[in-house]
Amino acid sequence: MELDKIIDFLKNYDGPQLKLMEVCGTHTSSIARSGIRGILSQKIKLISGPGCPVCVTPAAYVDRCIDYSLKENHALVTFGDMMKVPGASGTLSAAKGRGARVELMYSPFETIGKAERNVETIYVVAAVGFETTAPAYALLVKEAKEKNIKNIRLVTALKTIAPALAWICENEKAIDGFLCPGHVSVITGTAGYEALCEKYGRPFAIAGFEPEQILACVYDLAFGLSNGRRPEVHNLYKSAVKEGGNKKAQEVMAECYMEGDAMWRGIGTIENSGLYLSKRYAEYDGGSFGLNEDLGLPEGCRCGDVIVGRISPDECPMFGRGCSPENPVGPCMASSEGACGVWR
Predict the structure, then answer these.
(1) No. of H helices and E strands in the chain?
(2) 21 DSSP β-pair partners
(3) Which of 46, 24, 43 lies closest to 35 in space, CA to CA?
(4) d(CA 231, CA 318)
(5) Strand runs (DSSP E) across the chain, as ranges?
(6) What integer pLDDT is reported at residue 294 of this predicted model?
(7) DSSP secondary structure string, 270-334?
(8) Are 340 and 33 in contact (CB under 8 A)?
(9) Backbone phi, then psi, for 216, in 5-degree steps?
(10) pTM, to two decimals
């Protein structure tokens, strides 16, 4: 359908009240930048889900990373979006200001060169992410093992999306449909959504990242729901997402990881939603287990309600009142793809 007709439908929609969840931090960012919410009828509400891996990383994990960064002969290697995520003992940014050794990376594979050049230093990689980044960390440990590099460790906070969506479907009955994460879907394919759709009777639409692609998915969900269409999974990002996903990425993940329960900050523990290094690569684990203690959120912070779509970011009493991207109180404000960090 032509874009102007899609916009006209969504702008003038007058059917049942709909609550649609986008489950991708990049989608959240694109929706905010392009002003998509301003186009929609007041009867269509877009809400953000747990699509920002940094936002759902537990405080105990951040504290473990800080401990490593302060340890003699150790260096904590991380992407920049972890620097301001608050743990119980502060942030990596604050620790670095106190003299901790924290090194930013643009790619996990940079750690190989660092470790080879500085054998006296143990490089601890903060491996945070969903299925999108999990294959890269798997390939990192494979290469380290092949080269017999002994001074690399991973502390993992790797999670999978499908168990979180199942948890939301079980516990958040008001959500009518889902915009599925494009990057994750490239790896996983569509099978996981098919199972969820059949079990919970909710429609799922896989979206690309351009505003036009997101609008097409919102239209697809809204049109189907308002016309009583049987819930289905529609892949509207076929240029990148194949039914079976990326088989090579799936194979390396199956080799290097095993499933286990994981803590989603603001939600709680979700069974079999975490990825941990398998026994074959156990020598590279830096203590990823035992980080599922729920240390809670700061007093007044409602990131947990934001993550599951119960409230919009601006409904949190701390939003714009002491909690900002420059000084985040809760994890949703700490990342550039967190719901609070991009909210307009």
Answers:
(1) 14, 11
(2) 47, 178
(3) 46
(4) 37
(5) 18-22, 44-48, 74-78, 102-104, 122-129, 152-159, 177-180, 204-206, 233-235, 257-264, 268-277
(6) 63
(7) EEEEEEEE-GGGGGGB-S-TT--------TT--HHHHHTTSS-GGGSTTBTTTB-SSS-SSGGGT
(8) no
(9) -60, -40
(10) 0.93
pLDDT tens for the chain, 344 residues: list them. Answer: 799 999 999 999 999 999 999 998 889 899 988 999 999 999 999 998 888 898 899 989 999 999 999 999 999 999 999 999 888 889 999 999 999 999 999 999 999 999 999 999 999 999 999 999 999 999 999 999 999 999 999 999 999 999 999 999 999 999 999 999 999 999 999 999 999 999 999 999 999 999 999 999 999 999 999 999 999 999 999 999 999 999 999 999 999 999 999 999 888 999 999 999 999 999 999 998 877 766 678 788 898 888 888 888 889 998 888 888 888 888 888 887 888 888 85
Hey, is 236 helix, strand or coil? coil
Specify burial of residue 90 (Cβ count, 10 A radius: 0-12, 13-18, 19+): middle
SS3 (DSSP) at 196: helix
Burial of 201 (C-beta count, 10 Å sphere; 0-12/13-18/19+): exposed
Sheet holding 122-129, edge to edge: 102-104, 74-78, 122-129, 152-159, 268-277, 257-264
Angle between helices 3-11 and 211-226 (to 10 degrees): 50
Q: Give CA–CA dist 330/319, Å, rounded.
A: 10
Q: How far is CA 180 from CA 193, 217, 257, 282, in A?
A: 8, 9, 23, 32
The whole-angstrom separation of Cα 292 and Cα 94 is 23
Give dist(CA 102, CA 106) in Å, integer: 13
For the chain, what is the largest distance between any 2 Cα atoms, rounded to a whole number of angstroms? 66
Distance of CA 218 to the CA centre of its chain: 20
